[in-house]
């Protein structure tokens, strides 16, 4: 299967981690980025990555759907099939993605020429980044030692925050979370998919 991806994208990186954990060999293809036009590979009508070619010529998106699909192919899926734990994992995954969304939106606002900056909107995204990190700090004892469906998104969101919202210094703001994250940095899948070497 072909995964249109780039490890700098926290959404694409989740799928790259899950595939490695599930023992699924993907053909990872990095598309051209056409700036404000997005990724015009024709694989995702929304011009976004990741996209997974799950049937010849047919692409699955967005990243939570891709992750759930890859996990369903595993002999030992990590997302519980039902019940309270399933929704806890999906909630954690959404919180991690929400952090990535806030960082991504912050980046999109601040990458514009200075005269087009909208300070209120920048502040709104910074608040979401801070609140997401502080929520994660509170729940850090329950994020799990092993990789889970939820914490994959959280790790990808935190690394992306370290890269694109470096000034916020989430590790200083959330020391317990940083300690938990450090354990994930020691794993092979984290190292194989880390594209932010100099930023972390
Ligand atoms: N909700 C989507 C978000 C995907 C997304 O925004 N990807 C970014 C890369 S980090 C992208 O492709 N941006 C190009 C664009 O929107 O122009 C998902 O989870 O897959």
Order of helices and strands: EHEEEHHHHHHH
Mean pLDDT: 93
Helix content: 55-70%
Mind telling me the C-alpha Rg? Answer: 17 Å
Report on the architecture of this protein.
By secondary structure, the chain is α+β, with helices and mostly antiparallel strands. The protein has 2 domains: 2-73, Glutaredoxin, CATH 3.40.30.10; 83-199, Up-down Bundle (Glutathione S-transferase Yfyf (Class Pi), Chain A, domain 2), CATH 1.20.1050. Helices cover 55% and strands 7% of the residues. The chain contains 8 helices and 4 strands. Strands 2-1-3-4 form a 4-stranded mixed beta sheet. α1 (10-22) packs antiparallel against α5, α3 runs parallel beside α5 and α4 (119-139) packs across α7. The protein is globular and about 45 Å long. The two termini are 31 Å apart. The mean pLDDT is 93. The structure holds glutathione. Residues 9, 11, 38-39, 47-50, 61-63, 97, 104 line the site of glutathione.
Describe the structure concisely:
Helices cover 55% and strands 7% of the residues. The protein is α+β, with helices and mostly antiparallel strands and 200 residues long.
